[in-house]
Amino acid sequence: MDRVRRRPFHIADVLRSMSDAVITVDAAERVTSMNAAAEALIGIAEAEALGRKCGELVGSEICGTNCPVMAVWERGETAVNFNVALQNRLGRRIPVSICTSLLKNEAGEKIGVILSIRDIRPVLGLLDALHRSEEEIARQEGRLRTLQRRERLGEMVGRSAKMQEVFNLIQVVAKSDVTVLIQGDSGTGKALLASTIHGVSHRKEGPFITVSCATLPEGLLESELFGHVRGAFTGAIKDKPGRFELADRGTIFLD
After folding, report:
1. Based on the number of CB atoms within 10 Å of its own CB, is 207 exposed (0-12), middle (13-18) or buried (19 or more)?
2. What is the 3-state secondary structure (H, E, C) of 76-112?
3. Tens digits of residue pLDDT in 209-254
4. DSSP state of 212
5. What is the pLDDT of residue 147?
6. How many angstroms separate the CA atoms of 148 and 146, rounded?
7. CA 127 and chain centroid, separation
8. 116-145 core/surface letters (b: 16 or more CB in 10 A; e: else)
9. Residue 148: which H helix or E strand, with range?
C-alpha cells in the first residue's frame, strides 16, 4: 500500500484560504500576520499592520479592559463566538464574532494568539428580517382571528368564509367615494348590502336614499333624479329637489 506522504506547507497558505478574517499576534499583542479577509474587514494592508498593536487596528471597546487576546495568553481562556463591535479604518463600527486560541511551537511553548473574526452583519440582517416576518405573521394572525370572530356587520349576519370576505370587502370600499356596483339576483340582499356600506362609511351621518328605478316612468326619470323648478313642465307647481340632491353628503342606491 502506498504511504501517504506529508507535504510541507506554511500557515500563511491556510490563512489566505479562509473566508473569515484571521489575525495572529505575539505576546506583546503585536500583529505578526493577517489574511486577505482581515485586510478587507479592517481596511488596512498586512504590510502596514505588521508590528502594530492589534488594539490599534480593531478599535474595539474591549481592548485594554476585557481583551480576549490577553485572556487566552495569560489564563488560557479561549474565546468562542465572543460578540463585539470593532471599528475599521473608515471609522465604521462592525459587529463581529471573535474566537481565540493559543499558538504554540513544536516544543509546546506559547508563541502567540490567533484571532478568527467573523463579520456577523449578514446574520444580524437575517435575524432582523426574521423578527419583522414574525411580527407580520402575528399581525396577520390577529387580523384573521378578528375576521373569524366577526359574525355581524350592520344588519348583515354570517360566519362563513364567504361572508367574511364580503365583510372585508365592505370595509375596503366604504373608505372611498367610488361608485359601487352590486350585482345579484332579486332577493339576494343588494339593498341590505348597500345600506351596510353606507352605515360603516364616513357618510353614515348623511341620508341613505333608495331609488327603485323600475317603478319610475320614463318621462319622470330625469325629474325624479335631478329635480325640477316650478313651471318646468305642466303640473310642476313648485320646486322639487331630485334624489341626488337629497342624498348630498350621504349615499344614493339606484336599484
Report:
1. middle
2. CCCCCCEEEEEECCCCCEEEEEEEEEEEECCCCCEEE
3. 888 777 877 767 777 777 766 656 666 667 777 777 777 888 888 8
4. -
5. 64
6. 5
7. 11
8. bbbbbeeeeeeeeeeeeeeeeeeeeeeeee
9. helix 121-149
Q: Which residues contact 229 (CB under 8 A, 6 or more apart)?
A: 236, 239
- Residue 196 in any domain: the answer is no
In angstroms, rounded to a whole number, what is the distance separating the alpha carbons of residues 200 and 180? 14
Q: What is the CATH number of the domain that holds 56?
A: 3.30.450.20
Element (H, E) at 16: helix 11-16
The total of other beta-carbon atoms located within 10 Å of residue 88's CB is: 16
What's this model's pTM, rounded to 2 decimal places?
0.46
Average pLDDT, the chain: 78
Q: What is the pLDDT of residue 2?
A: 45
Number of domains making up the chain: 1
Residue 18 is part of which domain span? 11-120
- Long-range Cβ contact pairs of 150-153 (< 8 A, separation 24 or more): 153/196, 153/200
75 belongs to a structural domain: yes
Specify if 93 maps to a domain. Answer: yes
Which three cell numbers mark 251?
Answer: 349615499
The DSSP letter of residue 66 is S
The answer to whether position 63 is within a domain reads: yes
Query: Which of 51-55, 113-117, 142-146 bottoms out in mean pLDDT, i.e. has the lowest?
Result: 142-146
| pLDDT tier for residue 30 given thresholds of 50, 70 and 90 | confident
